[in-house]
Amino acid sequence: MTEPRERVKYSAIIDRPNLPLPKGARMVVWTIVNVEVWDIARRMPRQVLPAPTGDVSLPDVPHWSWHEYGARVGFWRFFELYQRLNIRPTLAINARVCLDYPRLAQACRDANWEFMAHSFEQGPIHLEKDQPAMIERTLSTLEKFTGKRPVGWLGPGLTETYDTPDYLHAAGIKYIGDWVYDEEPTEIATKSGPLVTLPYSIELNDITMMVVQHHEAAYWTKKCIDSFERLYEESATRTKIMAIAIHPYISGHPFRIKYHEAIYNHIAKFEGVLHWNGEEILEWYSKVKNE
After folding, report:
1. Would you list the domain boundaries of the chain?
2. What's the whole-model pTM score?
3. Which residues fall within 8 angstroms of residue 199, CB to CB, at 6 or more apart?
């Protein structure tokens, strides 16, 4: 068992050298679209409708259907938006999506989105009986579907055990999004070599803001724009990365999508902003970290 503090030493961001972006760019916006499979035979990962008399029902048809709406309808609003903006997001994908929703996965593959492994199906990592086997099944399924083995990983609900980084690196994963402790890429130690952490977000995340904290959709626009404007201001002297994490069964609803679109309309007014996926951030970081 290796605790996080044993994998990485504390580092103040002001003590590190700046990592410049190419062609004078100032900051990166990293968009992550999370697409999942919720197994009707298990408890649903999220609930918004209280169970009658407090008794959790199985099967949980209303919440399974809520998630299913995301794959059938909500996702396609995202897809149209990013096609129109010529942005290729990172797709945090349960590998089972390729089996249960091949139409969706094929659209992302054909549009050249990055596939970031997000477990085989949605469920907490610490309840997996055989993590290495699940990781291999996930990566192999995605590799068979896309023709390319994923380099990134995001745990469902960002869950890990103390040993998960070792298993991931041994399986060929090069970066993870679970460690949301910084605004820049960092490296953590594993038994087989360093693993890069990218600055994913549980703050600029529609689950946190709208499902957990119950904010209205308009606040999503405000929160993301406020974050962007401050980071853009700071990017005059130091490269900044801003992650935006969304789910089609949340932000893909008709009463929310315009508030999400407004974020990108605002960002488009600023120069020197790159829209990169996780693999592009990893490649840049790997190149400039030792220069």
Report:
1. 21-43+54-288
2. 0.97
3. 30, 180, 182, 183, 184, 185, 241, 243
